[in-house]
TrEMBL record:
Gene3D superfamilies: Glycoside hydrolase/deacetylase. Residues 115-370 form the NodB homology domain. It comes from the Bacteria. SUPFAM superfamilies: Glycoside hydrolase/deacetylase. InterPro entries: Glyco_hydro/deAcase_b/a-brl (IPR011330), NODB_dom (IPR002509), Polysacch_Deacetylase (IPR051398). This is Chitooligosaccharide deacetylase. Belongs to the polysaccharide deacetylase family. Is involved in generating a small heat-stable compound (Nod), an acylated oligomer of N-acetylglucosamine, that stimulates mitosis in various plant protoplasts. Keywords: Signal.
Length: 370
């Protein structure tokens, strides 16, 4: 009876019916767990593919960041080689071919083309070369790496890297701007604190900037971390010469574009594009917006990206790629899939369309920001 009641609750969740019997606060806590339970049920029964069919597009763009040697040591902010391998195997098992962005856009315009997937990596971490590329070579799978100028020339304020280093290094962390102290004595509390602080920052550059005092007090140098984990100009150029690699733009400073005025956004995109083209001596046709959520970028940024000269630009709003996305190629969806830990059910739901269905309460299949 307990299982039956839970299944009924999952079905109501999948249909988009809120559980009004629960208080709002309790429901907000229970919903993520219930969604995970729904994914598990859908995966184990095979119904996930059926429920997600309407949300399954001709293509899917997948987003990764770091490919760690030890995901727990890095507070599960990326994934490892084994997970990357599992994801690629799952993509291929879904009947998708991994292609370049150029080929993917061509296939979107041709309804007779084979389903495809795009592999994208943000920020130009060195482990994308050392850890990810050998896996991609094994599968002959092309990738696009989106590189911010500041990561390459070491001028970036990579607050997320500094925050991770502080939490890794101390069992107690205070964030005065939040008026909060965190106990970070084990992996679970460290990972939870990382998520909570990042959630507090949201898309506020001023809150991200407020962490600088924490870094100074903790003796953490963000520039030294960037030097350790990110490709430099020479490395990026060598990496770009690999037959499987395409380099895309990721702004000059990796700031929240929605916090900037029009002129600053133009500069962020155009300076980054020019920097990469001068360094690599090839056209840079594709862009990934930093953060990429609805509140981090939108129609204004899309118009500027088109005027700067990008062929297509990617957000981080989850969803599959449909032919109609060619009508607004500066706001393409992309699924964050390179996080740990990740269950087989969670991976399947993102590839078969169920995740998009559940996050929209079975609403609009095609993700846009317009």
């Amino acid at each position: 009876m307990y299982l039956l009641n839970n299944l009924r609750r999952v079905w109501r969740e999948l249909r988009g019916e809120p559980l009004h019997v629960l208080p709002n606060k309790t429901w907000s806590i229970a919903k993520p767990k219930l969604s995970k339970f729904g994914e598990e049920v859908a995966h184990r029964t095979g119904i996930g593919r059926v429920l997600g069919q309407r949300y399954r597009g001709a293509g899917v763009a997948l987003m990764f960041h770091e490919i760690h040697d030890d995901v727990d040591a890095e507070l599960r902010t990326g994934c490892d080689v084994a997970q990357l391998t599992r994801i690629i195997e799952a993509v291929l098992a879904e009947g998708r071919e991994i292609v370049t962005i150029e080929e993917g856009l061509r296939r979107l315009a041709d309804p007779e083309s084979r389903p495809f997937a795009l592999l994208t990596f943000d920020d130009a971490y060195r482990d994308n070369w050392t850890n990810a590329l050998p896996v991609l070579e094994h599968f002959n799978a092309p990738l696009t790496l989106f590189a911010p100028t500041g990561m390459i020339d070491r001028s970036i304020y990579a607050w997320w890297l500094g925050l991770r280093e502080v939490i890794k290094s101390f069992d107690n962390v205070e964030v005065p701007a939040m008026e909060k102290k965190f106990t970070t004595s084990d992996l679970a509390s460290k990972a939870a604190s990382m998520r909570q602080i990042a959630g507090w920052i949201g898309t506020s550059q001023s809150r991200a900037d407020a962490l600088e005092d924490v870094f100074v007090q903790s003796g953490v140098s963000v520039s030294e971390i960037v030097e350790r984990v990110a490709m430099n100009a020479q490395e990026l150029k060598r990496f770009s010469e690999h037959r499987l690699v395409t380099i895309g733009a990721h702004t000059q400073t990796h700031r929240f574009l929605s916090n900037l005025d029009d002129e600053s956004v133009v500069r962020e995109l155009s300076v980054n594009k020019a920097f990469l083209e001068d360094l690599l001596q090839v056209p840079v046709k594709y862009l990934a917006y930093p953060y990429g959520t609805e509140t981090a970028c939108g129609a204004r940024e899309a118009d500027i990206a088109e005027n700067v000269g990008f062929t297509a630009s990617f957000t981080t709003r989850p969803g599959h790629l449909f032919a109609d996305h060619l009508n607004s190629p500066q706001l393409l969806p992309r699924i964050d899939i390179g996080y740990a830990p990740q269950s087989a059910a969670a991976l399947a739901s993102r590839l078969n369309g169920l995740h998009r269905a559940m996050t929209t309460n079975f609403g609009e299949p095609m993700a846009t920001l317009a």
